[in-house]
Amino acid sequence: MSQPFVAIVMGSDSDLPVMENSFAILRSFGIPFEARITSAHRTPEVTKDYVKDADARGCAVFIAAAGMAAHLAGAVSAATVKPVIGVPMNASMDGLDALLSTVQMPAGIPVATVAIGKAGAKNAAYLAAQILSVADPSMSDKLRDERAANAEQIAAKDATLQASLKG
Ligand code: RP5
After folding, report:
1. Given the CA of residue 14, which atom of ligand 1 is nearest to it?
2. How far, in Å, from the CA of 101 to the mean position of ligand 1?
3. CB distance 63 to 85 below 8 Å
4. Contact between residue 67 and residue 87 where contact means Cβ atoms under 8 Å apart
5. Distance of alpha carbon 116 from the chain centroid
6. Is the CB of 14 inside a 6 Å radius of any atom of ligand 1?
7. Where are the alpha helices (DSSP H) in 64-134?
8. What is the residue-level pLDDT of the chain in tens, covering all 167 positions?
């Protein structure tokens, strides 16, 4: 059986610089992914066809990023029963419009919504890794290692702060 992959869709190329943060995290975990620019409003048929096709080819998790009236993650969720993670983009109104459009899904069509912008793009990839880790113990190990490394970095930063306060 082929390795499960993550499918990332974003509404515009203007979302790409932020979503490259997802690419980097997925690469760091060795998770195969695809990325497409397709829009719930501008290319609705392409979006639906891509989701159906990716689903049939073994996509395990979808990540959908959009700004403004951000219906992309909801449109993806309507076309699949795989987990869908929504990343609100800050294209207007500090991203609050996209956050509400992404998170306020009607019951039965869920979107796991992460933070607006860069932190959300990173957490979407971490969350996808965590979903994959349910069936892949080696992914759990990688996630634990990553968290331990993060904790060490924070401890080192604190040590630097403490040293500077004494000096
Ligand atoms: C959304 O509209 C896109 O996801 C993007 O965040 C926003 C603006 O798109 P562009 O006008 O930059 O193409 O659909």
Report:
1. 12
2. 14
3. yes
4. no
5. 11
6. yes
7. 72-78, 96-103, 118-133
8. 578 999 999 999 999 999 999 999 999 999 999 999 999 999 999 999 999 999 999 999 999 999 999 999 999 999 999 999 999 999 999 999 999 999 999 999 999 999 999 999 999 999 999 999 999 999 999 999 999 999 999 999 999 999 999 98
